[in-house]
Amino acid sequence: MSEKPKLHYFNGRGRMESIRWLLAAAGVELAELLSVLTVKVYGALLFQQVPMVEIDGMKMVQTRAILSYIAGKYNLYEKDLKERAWIDMYVEGVRDLMDLIRVHHKLSPQEQQKNLALIGEKAATRYFPVYEKILKDHKDDFLVGNQLTWADVQLIEAILTVEEKVPTILSEFPLLQAFKARVSSIATIKKFLQPGSQRKLPTDEKAVAFTNRIFNRR
């Protein structure tokens, strides 16, 4: 039996959450090492930043590289070069939306109100209409090909994360509603969505303060 991937990060979502999602979708058990101080002290972080994942004898950093490797290893990345390009485009679109959410907890209350409105606006007018059309044109259960891929996992993560901020965000997107129900019912993802899984709660001020102390941020 191969060793469980080891995830080095703080006890929060951040950039590690998409990695947790992808490993969970693949049905991979993982070990979380939440004390990133130890990692930093021993110089294991290539660019002195997390997330870091120990997998297959490597100490991988840089979120995109980690996700790409996991997707390829666990058959969540199509082998056809063109289909991989579509997956990459769809993943990058989701990441642009998620970046708006990742900074939300760092903002002042006044800035959060503006950012919340921006998240809702961008999701409803720029990003979710695109994925609705993709599903309509593709005429399949998934975004690319006929099986679950990295792109689907990133999209369901984004949908559920935006819904935490804007619960009615999918009201005008029936195909995304169906996609959400369908993908959430996949056994590995359904398990990840249950209480007690390694899915993290939204990042709060304590998690931000902890990370800032470790990396000497003000």
Automatic annotation (TrEMBL):
GO molecular function terms listed in the Swiss-Prot or TrEMBL record: glutathione transferase activity
Task: Pinpoint the GST N-terminal domain residues.
Answer: 3-78
Enumerate the spans annotated as GST C-terminal domain.
Answer: 80-203
PANTHER family from the xrefs? Answer: GLUTATHIONE S-TRANSFERASE (PTHR11571), GLUTATHIONE TRANSFERASE (PTHR11571:SF230)
Coiled-coil stretches: none
Q: Which UniProt keywords apply?
A: Transferase
| Pfam families attached to this UniProt entry | GST_C_3 (PF14497), GST_N (PF02798)
Q: Which organism was this protein described from?
A: Apteryx owenii (Little spotted kiwi)
Q: What's an example GO BP annotation here? A: xenobiotic metabolic process
Source species, domain of life: Eukaryota
What protein family is recorded?
Answer: Belongs to the GST superfamily. Alpha family.
- Per its UniProt entry, what is the enzyme's top EC class, as one word? transferase
| Keyword match Cytoplasm | no
For this entry, the protein name equals glutathione transferase
Q: What is its EC number?
A: 2.5.1.18
